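Our collaborator T.R. sent over the components below with a one-line note: 'Predict the complex.' Nothing else. No constraints on interfaces, no templates requested, no preferences about which chain binds where. So this is a plain run: every listed entity goes in together, and whatever single assembly comes back becomes the starting point for the next discussion.
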Amino acid sequence: MKSYVIPEYIIERDPNRCIRCKVCVNQCSYETHCYDEEDDCMTSKSENCVNCQRCATFCPTNAITIKKNPNVYRNNANWTQEALIGIKKQAETGGVVLTGMGCDKPELTYWDRLLINASQVTNPSIDPLREPMELRTYIGSKPEKLDLDFNNGDMELKTKLSPQLTLETPIMFSAMSYGSVSLNVHKSLARAASEYGTYYNTGEGGLEKSLYKYSDHVIVQVASGRFGVHSEYLNAGAAVEIKIGQGAKPGIGGHLPGEKVSAEISKTRMIPMGTDALSPAPQHDIYSIEDLRQLIFALKEAVDYTKPVFVKIAAVHNAAAIASGIVRAGADAVVLDGIRGGTGAAPRITRDNVGIPIELALAAVDQRLREEGIRNKASVIAAGGIKSSGDVLKAIALGADACYIGTAALVALGCTVCQKCYTGKCPWGIATTDLWLTKRINPDIGAQRLKGLLRGWSLEIMEMMGGMGINAIESVRGNRLVLRGVGLTDTELKVLGVRAAGE
Amino acid sequence: MALEELIKESAGSLTIKNKVAKIDATGMYYRDLNTLLRQLDKNGIENIQVHNVCGQRYLGTDLKGNIKLDLYGTPGNDLGSFMKGVDITVHGNVQDACGNTMDNGKIVVHGRAGDLAGNSMRGGKIFIRDGAGYRVGIHMKEYMEKRPSIVIGGTAQDFLGEYMAGGVLAVLGIGMKQKVHDARFVGTGMHGGVIYIQGEVRHMGEEVAVRELDTDDYNILKPLVEEFCSYYDMDATKIMDGKFNKLIPVSSRPYGNLYAY
Amino acid sequence: MKNLSKVNNPHGDEKVFDACSIFGMMNLKGQRFSAKDPMRAIANMHDRGNGLGGGFSAYGIYPDYKDDYAFQIMYLSTDAKLETDRLLNEVFDIINDEEMPTQEAKVTDPPLMWRYFVQPKAAKLQGMSPDDYVMKIVTRINSETGKAFVFSSGKNMGVFKGVGFPEDVGEYFCLEDYKGYLWTVHGRFPTNTQGWWGGAHPFSMLDWTVVHNGEISSYGINKRYLEMFGYKCTMQTDTEVLAYAFDLLMRRQKLPIKAVTKILAPPLWSEIKTMKPQTQQAMSALRQTYGGLLMNGPFTIIVAHEGEMIGLTDRIKLRPLTAATKGDVLFLSSEEAAIRLISPELDTVWSPRGGEPVIGRLQTKKTVEAIA
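Returned assembly:
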């Protein structure tokens, strides 16, 4: 049947600039641009364009402009462009509308309504360029108190500490499965994490053999599909993360469309090539909290208690109670992924309507764990659309020990958040397994870009901390007094545990 | 106020003999003491001794004349701050921020100094016989012939020469059993000036490098050490025989790659 | 439960800022002396305060009642006294009680000050340690009427504080008539102008007293960390978290002072890297476990309890502290001149390093432990 869906974007090519070099033809994986040999002219099929900006970025003469198609349906606050197109697509396919990346709806970001303090007069701000500023963070279970021995004035530790991860900056790379992103992306993430002094998460696609050498900086994930999970894999990481859910699609499992299940993916995940890799919604051996405890300790046994075990959940309505249960079940860290969390593929309806913002979940979980006197038993890691160092610092002030970044890392590599990851045609070579495209990411350059991101954010965090008169991240963590809210209701302020600006 | 009136008003705490003014500062509030010093200055007195100094602040700050000021006791914070041209000798220890933003003049201390000595100094000289505290010489500056110097006889504590933009800071390590300075973050943020230090530095800022002294350095350091020794009756040759290290900034724009434009 | 915060903090500031002068003087052989010298010393640092608060702690001042808990209570109304007396009689055997002696001095609106020498009623202890029992009662008195406040509740010691310059507060309480072996003093420069006597330092818990110069920028998390262990921060001054931290770490968790100072003012990671592997492990563990008690921001504190005086600054020494000894006496002061006023000749004078404590102990072999 003829599609009634109107194209979203229009390609405009400046004829005075275009030199018909055909770079755009080569770069576009959606076959938007073509060169007509006979007429020696360039044409574009605007209806294929997804606004990934690849052609515009690489055009040597800046001849290409991608515009929003001015041909839009009549303005309607209820029957929006998206609603109309969604219905037409479903009528045409009888299917679930897929999308990629994180929820893009307005009004769901609280970071931008939280403001940070600075010291004036009563307390000096500290100069991070000249005076020490400490971001070192340890992830893992902490004891309530320590037993120490003193031999000849030297302090000796008697308490045995649970295994910890050592982070030089409170930022780690979030789980993005091999399959949803390419091997070169994983190589870039692993190298950058290892060289900078932090960690990268394998996601649910397993750990490719060539990446085992980054062991000390890898967090291996055990998700519902249990892809690539074997004893060597578990011991290849510095920590093990049980994925119960993720912010982009709470309550449903991972989804790797058949287009992206290449030969390599088939090998690592142990599934037939070209089939959709749909992870089950729940982990089938976790139907209740005591089951989670059972799995946590199964994994701890499998690694002989040498690595911390995390549990990752999507931020949902009763996140605080669930987190409390997770901590009591023996997890060394709770990972909370908010509604803005990204994904390679998810039903758009779930991505945009299910789950809650990370800011609220994080504040509630931190407060709840403190009220129960168990906050020290597990670290809390926040994720879900963290887009700047300001967000990271605010997350720590709300109570997070560290943040996971996924989308931000991909953006550093070139991603423009066009939300077409599920097609497997990412022209930036990121969210694809097509070998022609994946070589567009050079792991050397990729690692450099990612380290640059970590460095830039870390420097900014140090500037803000210094501004507050604080020189150790421990003093920001959970310190709600460094934040104030603007444009928030009393209830929101109460949940966040933050005063209003001016108070 | 004329001198006779001043003496009368002082109720015995001020005497002037042979053009030397003697003040007994016991129990004197710093404002009153400084007012008195200003009055003496205005009356052309160039030689002032203050006895029983105990915590009075800002001594020597607003004196304009060519004055020699001898202080007996423990002056308070900000001794000689913003000072331009007075010659102060302290027979005792000084507290924090002595020579704060000093423009010219001299401070000679027969004892130790607290924190922030020579903070933002622009000219003049400070000599401390014993040791000093934190952040000595922080943000010292220089321009052309205006070049401040600080000489510390013993050792100093952390953040020595922080953010130095000019001037000369010398630490002699006298009396140290092991010539290793405990101070950390020495020269952090330094982008001008020079530190001469006798003994090993345990920990330095990233912007600093250690070098050997050359002839030019000796021509700067030797006269300073000789002047230092002249005040405390010490042997300059013995001190100059010891091994000095020179600390200088390695880049004049150390923060160039920190920003994304 | 009354909320005292509105009395002390009418503008609802998240905490009341303090900046000030502090002084400590201890005779290490236990010889007792009057407040005359400490008062002169703090008066010498007059310009560090603004007359809106001053206070003293004194140890060894009640030798006749040395085994009894000495409650020194401030009352803002006679009803509050009646109610509190009723409670005290219920839970304690009251050995003696009287109004605290005072004289005319330049202080603002002095409240009624009463002291009691008490012992917990044995029958009511029910397995609780006497210290914990006393702590519970103190918390109750402080929050119940809103007009009664316990200044100190330790044995053979007392806290005297109020609104006025510290030398005037000392005069008001006739402190020259008391003799103690350890005195700590505080002059306050608060940015809140309410004249509330309870807001001055020292802040105390049992026989722990803290005087504090500076501001704790990590207060928001220190408070929440302590709340997990049952402490309630109601005084809205950051000094409060220091007193509770000492109580938690030293009295309840029985950590030695050396470990405690490494928790409050830990060495930098760059310094830890240079230590012996064993020490590295211990120091890292302390920071990992007790990160919520790291006291960030500028501070100099003098903490005292029976037999010990401890001076400590923040790890990058943003506030001053001078230590000195003369014979059997250990001095701690914001400014050296204050010490010189009392003792023009000194045996030793030094500035402790940031984060390194100066500890004076009563009559033990090594009476002064410090890093010069």
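Summary for T.R.: The longest helix of chain B spans residues 215-232.
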